[in-house]
Design brief:
By secondary structure, this protein is an alpha/beta fold. It has helices spanning 2-6, 13-21, 67-71, 82-110, 118-121, 128-134, 137-147, 158-162, 222-225, 229-233, 238-249, 259-266, 282-288, 295-303, 314-345, and strands spanning 174-184, 190-199, 205-210, 217-219, 253-256, 275-277. The chain has a domain at 161-342: Ribonuclease H-like superfamily/Ribonuclease H (Nucleotidyltransferase, domain 5, 2-Layer Sandwich). The chain contains 15 helices and 6 strands. The longest helix has 32 residues, at 314-345. Its main location: nucleus.
Length: 346
């Protein structure tokens, strides 16, 4: 107390007690204990001054920063909680990805590259998400639109799904065939061919002819076959049609649904290793959970289109079978190849 009076700087009793209990040492100041578990440091103004009353040589104790504050600063130096910091990093990566996409697009324009054409990817049996990752969003958009998967898009027509627009119209390595039949015999239970249709791999019709009946027709089955008397009365001779069809099928992969019936009425055969029957393909059976699925069921479940809603059309049925084949072509052909290799090994 006498020392304080001489320096004209009175000290409170509380301050005097603090100095007695916790003397301040220069260069080694102890940290004031945290109160109630908090890490905030209490500032002691009176203890920062020396006995001579000068505070310049001994600046106030620096308040230590908590670990939470240190870790809550993001790259930009702003404070945020754990979630905010994480989100900032995520946003940064997203911005980086967007920048990479813009850079790729700009680079493509500089090299004169054009976005993928619809005709180049429509029949690829690849998931649109994979197309987007490999080629880009424009290609994926085309794929989704053609498959009728694009959000907010009106449902595509049957023709749009089954036929590839502006595609090659000639014969291809694989062709699909379908026949319409009429009934002969006492009750019209026996069948003869009335119409033959063949399409190429892109759904383009390459052959379509009505066939003059070789026997008296007792049931035209118009409700199903769509055949009328005037259509087949002026049709092509059976032998001519048979030869023309045989020439087209020779050496090619034949696609169809229940092809055994079509080949039977034409009195033709075809190598089993070159037949792709959508009714007998096991993965299709498993997907629709049916041992002998109809073409209508397969198209509804796998292509999301309605066929054979009224009178059948052999052209459309052949297109539907071909579209189912191209949908699974990669895996189907691989399975056929493996099966052939296993037989050769034995």
């Amino acid at each position: 107390k006498q020392k304080a009076k001489s320096s004209n700087e009175p000290l409170s009793t509380c301050q005097t007690d603090t100095k007695k209990k916790h003397p301040v040492k220069v260069g080694n100041r102890p940290e004031v204990p945290a109160l109630n578990g908090n890490r905030n440091v209490v500032k002691a103004k009176s203890t920062n001054k020396m006995d001579n009353g000068s505070a310049e040589d001994n600046p106030p104790l620096a308040q230590p920063k908590s670990k939470k504050v240190a870790t809550d600063k993001n790259i930009n130096g702003t404070k945020s909680d754990g979630k905010g910091r994480k989100g900032k990093k995520k946003n940064g990566s997203i911005l980086k990805e967007k920048g990479d996409i813009k850079h790729k697009r700009r680079k493509a324009k500089e090299h004169g590259e054009q976005p993928p054409k619809e005709t180049e990817i429509w029949f690829d049996d690849v998931d649109p998400n994979d197309i987007e990752a490999a080629i880009g969003p424009e290609a994926a958009k085309i794929a989704r639109r053609n498959l009728g998967l694009e959000t907010g898009q009106s449902k595509p027509s049957v023709e749009q799904v089954l036929v590839k627009e502006k595609a090659f119209e000639g014969l291809t390595r694989a062709v699909a065939m379908d026949c319409e039949m009429v009934g002969v015999g006492p009750k019209g239970e026996d069948s003869i061919v009335a119409r033959v249709s063949i399409v190429n791999q892109f759904g383009k019709c390459v052959y379509d002819k009505y066939v003059k009946p070789t026997e008296e027709v007792t049931d035209y089955r118009t409700a199903v076959s769509g055949i009328r008397p005037e259509q087949i009365s002026t049709g092509e001779d059976f032998k001519t049609v048979q030869k023309e069809v045989a020439d087209i099928l020779n050496g090619r992969i034949l696609v169809g649904h229940a092809l055994r019936n079509d080949l039977k009425v034409l009195f033709l055969d075809h190598p089993q290793k070159k037949i792709r029957d959508t009714q007998r393909y096991k993965p299709f059976k498993q997907r629709v959970k049916c041992a002998r699925p109809s073409l209508k069921l397969l198209c509804e479940k796998l292509l999301n289109v309605q066929v054979q809603t009224s009178e059948h059309c052999s052209v459309q049925d052949a297109q539907a079978a071909m579209r189912l084949y191209t949908l699974e072509k990669k895996h189907w052909e691989a399975a056929v190849k493996n099966k052939s290799n296993n037989k050769n090994c034995k």
